[in-house]
């Protein structure tokens, strides 16, 4: 905890900046760093809360004040504070970045009470793909998109700029991939049922069964754990997840960017896996295939012609993602089973291989759009220094 003297010193540093201004205002470098490192803290808190949240909901009956929700709320509170600071002072953002952050934060804050009402009216929300949950993801999507733009446009060149931009893209990937965790947890929870084991508490199973008007049997468990079509997981992962990696590679501008962003997210999931699994929470399959696909995105960017690499990249990255999912199912299932003392577990959610065509078409459209939009951007080039502005004078 900071001493009163240090808090007084921090307030003396910050107060001169608390003046009304328009977005796009020249921002002193030290203030710029404080604002965006604040965003790193806010998004980290939200990440830790959301990572715990899915596992929690596969074990316990929903509670508005569950620890994962409180942790996520702490990150949201800091994000709201930063949004207000950007909006009032105009520091650290241009007009587009500010609009994205404000709209994203606003959508998220509207979605929170709607989600609470949804749970009050409909009881257990059995899927991550519900409308109120999707609003939460959409709000966070725009919020992080604004943060990425603000940092991309204003950070000075150097290693810190690249690393922090990659970190923001990893948070972006986590939010985009988040609903897929329902199937990643669900496939192992259904496998546990088949092994005559359950991860969920009896009160949660009974609540879900009552809501489906069924006894607690395998059909009920399948409806609880895997309530969406098998094609949704791979198609969404390829179209949405790989689009984030394409954009990351395009804006970071370095070979390996897509791979490292994917590896950062998957690495985090891998680290928390034992922390959750061996403390009594349900395990999940892990999306290792994203790292393989990210590597192929990086390789595709060795082709200089944008629309040619979009076509070639779509083909190889989609094939790699589906192929890696097949291998992951075969290779990781026995590993998960050995760790849990169970047999026959799948290493990934069920895969509808025929959906690869639709996934490829969707990714191609998204990739071409990214190439077109980023090719026309008027953003400051990577090697151009951001403006250096002196701190305002104190009176």
Explain this structure to me?
It is a single chain. With 395 residues, the protein is mainly α. The protein has 2 domains: 22-156; 159-197 and 208-382, no CATH class. The protein has helices at residues 4-14, 29-57, 67-89, 95-122, 131-154, 159-177, 181-194, 202-212, 218-225, 232-252, 257-277, 289-300, 306-340, 356-375. Mean pLDDT is 88; it is low at 378-395.
Describe the structure in brief.
This protein is mostly helical.
Q: Low-confidence stretches at least 5 residues in length (pLDDT < 50)?
A: 378-395
Output mean pLDDT: 88
Helical stretch count?
A: 14
Largest sheet: none
Could you state the order of secondary-structure elements as H and E? HHHHHHHHHHHHHH
Number of domains: 2
The N- and C-terminal alpha carbons lie at a distance of 29 Å
Shape: globular
Work out the number of β strands: 0
Overall SS class: mainly alpha
Q: Residue share in helices?
A: 55-70%
Radius of gyration: 22 Å
As a percent range, the share of strand residues is under 5%
Key traits:
395 residues; mainly alpha; 2 domains; disordered C terminus
List the helices and strands and how they pair.
Blueprint: H1 4-14, H2 29-57, H3 67-89, H4 95-122, H5 131-154, H6 159-177, H7 181-194, H8 202-212, H9 218-225, H10 232-252, H11 257-277, H12 289-300, H13 306-340, H14 356-375
Helix pairs in contact: 2-3, 2-6, 3-4, 4-5, 5-6, 6-10, 6-11, 7-9, 8-9, 10-11, 10-12, 10-14, 11-12, 12-13, 13-14
